Amino acid sequence: MFDNIYAREYYLNKIRGFYRDDMIKVITGVRRCGKSSFIKSVANDLEASGVSSENIIYIDLDSKPYLKVTTPDALEKIIDEKIGNNGEYKYLLIDEIQNVAGFEPLINAYRNEGNISVFLTGSNSYLLSGELTTKLTGRYIEIEMFPLNFFEYLELKKFFGKSILDTSEEFNLFIRYGGFPKTVEYDSPEDKELYVRDVIEQIIVKDIRKHKKVRNLSVFDRVMTYMINNYGATVNLTNMLNYFRNEEKLNITQETLYGYIKLLENAKIIYKCPRFDLKSRKSLKGEQKYYLADPGIYFSNNSDARINYGPALENLVFTYLKAKGYSLSIGKIGKLECDFIARKNNDYFYAQVAVTIAERSAEDREYASLEKIKDNYPKYLFTLDPMLQRRNGIIHKNLADFMKNNENL
Fold it and tell me: Residue 338: its pLDDT value, please?
């Protein structure tokens, strides 16, 4: 159906089991992460599996033919014209559904007919609101997408016929410019940075300001800048509030601060990773870390081109594992910290992330928290070292190679 579409196989595998299902499939993710291309790849995948193209109805409400389709009645007319009356099972794929105000009852009605499978993409701040949950009567699943991981980034470069450098060079470029799919098409670093800055601006204008009331835009911008610049660092919201009041001299309430952070989460610019005490087996309140949906977000908003590898590598591990379906938290073991506890189904994994353990002191420090965990779940240490260590059953991996090979824990 669609030419020149890179198929992101992991997400297709995640959604295939729901193809012929009455659950509404809602595809979410930070703006420009590839949702529109993905829903086209779903159409291609359906056709490749034997579904006739006439039974696949694709509607892009941001495209010129449908710009005036802004009401449920207008959308219903378009859908009914395309469905026809051959009585066969249909697949309805709608991109940018938020352009139709009050679409939910109509979409529910098509789902209830029993012979239509519905797929939706749209603005995150709207699609993830409590309203949607209520109006779609809980009969939907969310397929959450991230920008490209390192494996997908290399595969997309091959797809576009781009030359591929040495793995370590490509990995540094990936950290610096991120995985928004469109950036792969640009060769100029300036073009890549400009594009990512434009993505962030569109998120603010279209996903946040358009759907939510931000009373003080300058205060919101400063909160957003703080969260982006402090990604991967431990954040205590009470201390953060005191910082804005005492250091930045902002008249900001706790409710406003929490609300602005929630807006950034709903727009999927940032993701919260809570802390977990391995001794008490309880979540720790008041402290957490926030990671970015894509590393390019940080560098597009900062003139300093130097890479702070500590938080950058943590962020890559977080989004890589999150995209693969792992639930993540930060493990606290007394005074030590394990960067990530990853859970998938009933299996647990522990992961520590460092740039290098070439020095013995660094090796001892990075292994210490993993060695203190006494259960028998797998333990990983990710670094950029070319030479891998073996110590106490802990699995030492080169992070770039791990991601390049599309490995799992």
Answer: 95
